[in-house]
Amino acid sequence: MKKVLLLGTGGTIASEVTGSGLIPVLTPDELARCVPGLDGLCEVTCRQLFSIDSTNIIPAHWLMIANAIREEYAQYDGFVIAHGTDTMAYTAAALSYLIQGSPKPIVLTGAQKPIVFEDTDSRTNLADAFRCAVSDLGGVVIVFNGRIILGTRARKTRTTSFQAFSSINYPLLGVVQNGRLLEYIRPEAAEQPLFYDKLNPNVGLLKLIPGTDCGLLSYLLEQKDAVIIESYGVGGLPSYKGSGFFEVLRQAVQEKEKTVVMTTQVQNEGSNLAVYDVGFHLKQDLELLEAYDMTTEAVAAKLMWILGQTGNPDAIRTLFYRPIAHDILSPEG
Ligand code: ASP
User: N or C terminus of the chain with fewer C-beta within 10 Å?
Assistant: First the structure.
């Protein structure tokens, strides 16, 4: 029988009602006991890594999860991580960079309603996650509401209903229906996974609204090694006289070797800075990086992973555009 390691990290799935709202308290052993049909499917070992609302996740937690999987990798056929939904997409992206090419499934799941509730999605999500964890599917995925989403492509798109996650700019890898796995796509895996153990969390994000002061960007660039700018449409920055963005960026990129990635607030279809004059010069003259079809979650995690390895602008550019776990489809090469 296959062996699966269940890692507990907290989240709604493990929560109970308190006077101040839901708090994660259940252990992974308690979660596993609630999953129907688990005994006949696999041998489960449980380990609690931490027990937090995933709003409290920081990159150090991602390193803890990756490290736990690295330590136990040879002993198990698959891994299930029970996690809060709020930042699960970030964790999935981070694990996709920290553990590359895994031939064994690394499955994140959680729930919109605690496992102790009668009308919960927890039991089905966990059962589906275990179903995937005993399959031949490799890599990091989120299994939620019967859908299998690539770790670099997931985003939480609903706050309360069971269909909490979407796959952005990439098809679903498959579905689990009534306990049966229907695989559409299998991401290729290596013979052995490549583990990384360094991240540089000093990455910031600026979401533009009309009228955003370039001083805000300037401040972020002073504080951070890399800044992601979520602009509009296919991408661009205000260029009216006195807006100041271009000069702030020129100094940061050319004089201080800061990393800047342009992306878009629009969820689907990605950026293309070359289309409009407001983006063209950022690309042509400042050589800013752009996210194309990557999610902001993946861009943030990828930058932390890249900057954990190098500060060299050419190496950063090369690594940023190198597709990892199908995170980007339109690289510049
Ligand atoms: N706030 C919770 C968390 O992310 C939400 C959830 O798990 O659904 O931990």
Answer: C
